[in-house]
Request: fold
Amino acid sequence: MAESSEHSDPFNPGHLFGHVQDADYFDVPQFLVPGGKIKIGQPFYSGGETVIKKYGPIEGFDFKITKFMLIEVAVSVIVAALFIRMAHRMRSSDAPKGRWWNLLEAMLVFFRDQVARPAIGHHDADKFLPLIWTIFFFVLGCNLFGLLPWCGSPTAALATTGAMALVTFFTVIGAGMRKMGVVHFWTGQVPPMDLAFPIKILLWPMLFVIEIFGIFIKHFVLAVRLLANMMGGHMVLAVITTFIVATAGQAVFWGVMPVSVLGAVALSLLELFVGFLQAYIFTFLSALFIGMAVHPH
Reply:
C-alpha cells in the first residue's frame, strides 16, 4: 500500500529521496527498460543472501554492489587514466602541450601554490600533494557524475563523504604524531596557559577532552558539509522536475513544463559550479587540518 502511494504521489518524500540515495539499481526511463530499473548484478549473493553474510566472520554484515560503488570505481579509473597519460607525456617534454595537459597542470599548480603550501607550509606541503590532488579530483568527479542522467552523486551519501573525512582524519593524526611525537602531539592540543598551578591542574584535563572532542567534530562536519550541499541541490532539482510529472494531463501542464525545464537547466548550471566549489572547499579544509596538525602553533 505504501509503495503504491509513493507512485501515485510524485512528491512523496520516499519517492523523491529515492532519486538521490544509493541503490542496487539504476533508474532509467521506462521506454528504455520495462519497469525503469537496471538491476546491478550481485556476485556475492548466493541463495538470497550474501556469501559474506552467510560465511563471513561478521554476523549480519551485508555486502551489496551499488550504483555509487560503480560510479566511484568509474571516477577512480578516469582520474588514473588522465594523470597516468599526462605523466607519460611529461617524461618526453617539460613544456605543457595540448588543452588537457595545460588544464590539468594549471589545476595542479594552483592547489600546490594556493592551497597546500599556504596551509601546510612550503617544507611539508610537497609530501601531502599527491593526497591533496587525489582528494580534489575524486570528490570533483563524484560531484559531476550527479549531473549525468540516471546516475547520481556518491558524495550525496554519508558513506562516501564519511570515508573521505576518515582519510583526512587518519592523515591528520598520523602526520601530527610523526612530526611532533605521539605524546607531544596529543598534549599539544591544549594551548599553553599562564595560570597558577592549582588552576591549571583543574582546567587542563577539561580543555584536553574538549580539544580531542573538537578534532572528531571538525572531521564529522567536514563530511556532513559536503553531503548536505550535494544532496540539497539534487533534492531541489528533483522537486522542480517532479512538477512536470505532477501536472501531466492537466490544463496547467504547458505553463508549468517550460518553467520547470528552464528552472532545472539554471539549477544544473548552479550545481556545476557547486560541484567545483565543494570539491575545492573539502580539499582546502583537509589541507588546513593537516597544516594545523604538523604546525600546531
About this structure: Confidence is low (pLDDT under 50) at residues 1-6. Residues 2-23+66-294 form one domain. The longest strand covers residues 25-27. The chain has one domain: 2-23+66-294.
